[in-house]
Amino acid sequence: MEKVKTLDDLKKLKEQLKSTIELREKSNNPESHVQVKVAMATCGIASGAREIMSFFMDELRKRNIDAIVSQTGCMGYCYAEPTIELTIPGHEPVVYGNVTKAKADEIIEKHIKNGILVDGIIPVTYQNINKK
Amino acid sequence: MEEIALHILDIVQNSIVACANLISIEVEEDYANDRLIIIIVDNGKGIEKHLLDKVADPFYTKRTTRKVGLGLSLLKQSAEMAGGSFSIESEINKGTTVKAIYQHSHIDRQPLGDIPQTISILVASNPDINFTYKHKINNNSYYFDTRQIKEVLEEVPITSPEVRVFIHQMLKQNIDMLNRQFKEI
Ligand SMILES: Nc1ncnc2c1ncn2[C@@H]1O[C@H](COP(=O)(O)OP(=O)(O)OP(=O)(O)O)[C@@H](O)[C@H]1O
Ligand SMILES: [Mg+2]
What we know:
The complex is a heterodimer of chains A (about 130) and B (about 180).
Chain A: H1 7-25, E1 34-39, H2 42-46, H3 49-62, E2 67-72, E3 84-87, E4 94-96, H4 101-114, E5 121-122
Parallel strand pairs in A: 1-2
Antiparallel strand pairs in A: 1-3, 3-4, 4-5
Helix pairs in contact in A: 3-4
Chain B: H1 4-17, E1 22-30, E2 35-42, H2 49-52, H3 71-81, E3 85-91, E4 95-103, H4 115-125, E5 130-137, E6 140-145, H5 146-153, H6 161-184
Parallel strand pairs in B: 1-5
Antiparallel strand pairs in B: 1-2, 2-4, 3-4, 5-6
Helix pairs in contact in B: 1-3, 1-4, 4-6
Magnesium ion binds near residues 10, 69 and 71 of chain B.
């Protein structure tokens, strides 16, 4: 049976992480990071936003991309949930709708890694992005 | 919502919007009385007395992006559908307590769902908010508190991907253990 993790194990993990964190912090202004914001209002959660958020967190880590994944309130696109807002350093934020895991994978590989826009972008025109 | 854990994630969003910095989540599985109880307590800005009766009505919301607020009314509906009840208490500038009670064995009760994922995501994406999570099955319980986690982590951020994976595993293992202990009796 798998041993249950305790705070002592967390202490060991902390020691391992300390050295890598110091390296990471040297480049630690938010503009230098890819940012993924997942809309987490009721409509988003009911449409699978939690799984999409986990997917981005897990996959960006596995693919060694230093990104900040966070949550935001309703962005006003209930008809297209789950939605995410993606910001690449030096570029305007882009909103993607109906994000599935396959779409998220495509967004990571094409847009985040190579700067190529992917289908599914919601044009932000007069829509007001209200982050409640 | 397919899982109670998704309702929890959603109700906690209300606490976050209400500027809470301490949010306590409790799941109690009381098999002796055939009840499953969910309690979410926050120290956010609270809800005015005259609005309290209305908040679980879908046509009440403070949001501006859409005319209906769904979170509380969906939770209420899900509890009532499963032979249970819903209540909300609040005090301005003190905080809010949301409670949902289900009949544990009710055929229409949603599964509890992926609690470790809900909690680990909340913790990783809200580093300035402290969370506690208590899971009780009959007389055994597990208690998780981000203040303890942060004390151990010191300068290592609680948002580190590795820490999120750790917290997820720790929660899952401990909840699984509670379930095993229950089955062994
Ligand atoms: N914990 C809380 N603290 C303060 N106010 C709250 C809290 N929970 C709910 N409210 C108030 O009750 C209203 C209704 O909440 P509910 O979750 O049902 O809908 P919503 O959050 O407005 O929209 P949705 O959940 O559909 O995204 C909120 O708009 C808010 O004004
Ligand atoms: Mg809500």
